[in-house]
Amino acid sequence: MLVALAVLLGRFVRVVTRMRGGGSALPGWVVLKLVPDFVARVMTRIQSDHAVPVAVVTGSNGKSTTTSMAVAILEAHGKRVFSNPSGGNLPQGIASAMLTDVTLGGTLSVDAVVLELDEAYGVQLADAVRPSHALLLNIQVDQLNRFFEPERVVEMVRRIAEPAHTVIVNDSDANTRSLGNQFAPTHDVVGFDVVDRVAPDGVYGANAGNDAAKDARTPLVSVTAVDGVNTTLAYAGEPLAVRLPSPGVHYAVDAAGALALGARLLGDEFDSSVAASAISDMKPVYGRGETVEAFGSPLTIVMMKNHPSLQANLDALSETPESLYLAVDDGTPDPSWIYDIDLSRLDHVDVVSGSKAWQWETRLAYAEIPTGVVEQDARTAFEAFGTNTSPKRQKHRTAIVNYEQMMDLRRELGYMEIEGE
Amino acid sequence: MTLRIVHLYPRELGMFGDVGNVIALQMRARWSGIVASVESVGVSDAVPENADVYMIGSGSTAGLRAVAEAMPTLARSLTRAHSAGATVVAIGAGLHLLGSRVDIADGESVDGAGLIDATSTLRAERLVGPLSGSIGKQGVTGYVNSGHQLIGTFNPLVERIEGLSIESDGVSADGILGTHLHGPFLPMNPKFADDIIEKHTGVAVDQDDPRVSRATGAASHSRVALRRELGL
Ligand SMILES: [Zn+2]
To answer: Within 10 Å of residue A185's Cβ, how many Cβ atoms?
Structure first.
């Protein structure tokens, strides 16, 4: 009864927030206020009715993209999947997502669940979600204002994976590989990785005291070549061509993880060529290299969450951006890491914006990279970007932004669907 | 004219962009016509004793453990270099390691280089966020993220702090600048980089050089923006 009431009220809140042009985790928040264990109730129901596998995807970078890939693979195999939309990886985001499909009795009719989990909230959610499969992507230096030390994140991720019977780990990241080694005696551990020549500088794993000791695991999926969006993966030793939603080694590694997860979830039903085309048909996840329209030309949005994600995206640039907008705000509270970034892929920045604009201008000055305009107000700055630049050599403009600026920019440009709903 | 900079343990220490301090010294010296060299020293390497500036950065528990074995070597060489007039810029864990002992989360501790009379103990609550303060009469800003506090006999570097629950931060001693202001410390507060450069080379940083003035101007705007972020 209470569940039915919560579902109805949550749906009502969602209609209202949508009418107001927004969308958020608010409906889920309302549901959790009424029924704090709503997520656990729905998950218990799913798992007791029939043995539905529940996979969680966690790690510092690539959660949204990898989750979307895994969902695409399962759906291409004809499975009904429940998942949280990209970015909705906190409890209220998951509860919000459940509102769409759940019956008033709290039942979800699905064949599989794939959830991306925030590292910190995931610990609490893992108890409610009771994952059967956990995909551990990487532990990189990320949000230290929240997490303090990478060591703590390693422990959070370990606790998320603990209840699962199958743990899929990135063997090219020293931290997740080490977790795989720890789980090996008690869990079914499956590895995926990238060959050294494709990622000569490593995968930007955080130094959390886990040495690079190799293990005996043969990876189920390996990234063997990356050329822009075209990648070759080796699945069970066989080459598999995949077109990535956005260019870069990091997206190829995400694809390898999604394939390994798909293979384990589907078992005998898994068809690697179906999985490869499912990924190849995907559009970029919000802001992760997606192209939108601005000032009558395409604008490629590159989101950066932290040092490793910005560096991976810079490494993936096929050429120096001709028209470049850079905006970072208080969503990135401590920008100290900008001094660790290798900016040699950039030869200028047209407009620097956001409340951290001058921090970035300082960094760019020390890197001797010229800038056009520095303007903290994003609206004014973005207008100047349209006026001051015109795509010529490159047919598109480029925006490098943090998460909050990415969301603002999409909204400003009329791309209304809101991530994290 | 030359400026020789040694960057200590960049692989293990430097979690908060601390290399920014090396970059600021190197670029501002170069822009002023000084030949600035940077040598990275690893945990198993000998520490050169004839450099002008030594920079040691911040790190996590794993970083502290990883450099522990190098501390006897560092203590010997850095003490000699410092008494010969070298400047030491120490950030976060790097600052704690200049004391005699640093406590680590699970009850273990690491011996430091012993250049300052201090030990580092764990804070009950971690100190995280931006701060505004002053070094002497000069306003400074920066970002702190620290789980330790330094206890001992020393003068603090940053005083009159606003924005965080501490009144002062770091250590100021002859030839030692220790703080928690991370990688942006010298880039965002370039006066202190310029003082170091002039002290060791006799050359004043050329404030009229357009590259110097761009960086100095941007740094000044950054400090204003950070103070605004703190509501000051
Ligand atoms: Zn500290």
So the answer is: 7
In 3D space, the residue among A239, A268, A219 whose CA is nearest the CA of residue A77 turns out to be: A268
What is the ipTM score, two decimals? 0.97
Q: Residue ranges of the domains in chain A?
A: 2-13+21-280, 290-412
Query: Whole-angstrom Cα distance, residue A378 to residue B61?
Result: 38
CATH code, residues A290-412: 3.90.190.20
Whole-angstrom distance, CA of residue A402 vs CA of residue A359: 14
Number of A to B CB contacts under 8 A, please give it.
113
- Give the HSE-up count for residue A390: Cα atoms under 13 Å, Cβ half-sphere: 1
Instruction: State the total domains in chain B.
Output: 1
Find the chain B residues whose C-beta atoms sit closer than 8 A to any C-beta of A.
11-12, 14-20, 23-24, 27, 60-63, 65-66, 126, 128-130, 143, 145, 147, 182-184, 187-188, 211, 214-215, 218-219, 221-222, 224-225, 229
Asked if A294 and A397 count as a contact pair (C-beta separation under 8 A), the reply is: yes
CATH superfamily of this structure's domain A2-13+21-280: Mur-like, catalytic domain (3.40.1190.10)
Residue B4 CA to residue B87 CA, distance in Å, equals 11
C-alpha A373: how far from chain center: 31
Q: What pTM was computed for the model?
A: 0.88
Cα–Cα distances in angstroms (integers) from residue B192 to residues A369, B89, B94, in the given order? 23, 10, 18
- Report which of A91, A235, A233, A70 is spatially closest to residue A137, judged by C-alpha positions: A70
DSSP state of A85: P
Give pLDDT tens digits for A169-179. 999 898 999 99
CA B103 to chain centroid: 20
Cα of B59 from ligand 1 centre, angstroms:
9
pLDDT band at residue B115 under the 50/70/90 scheme: very high
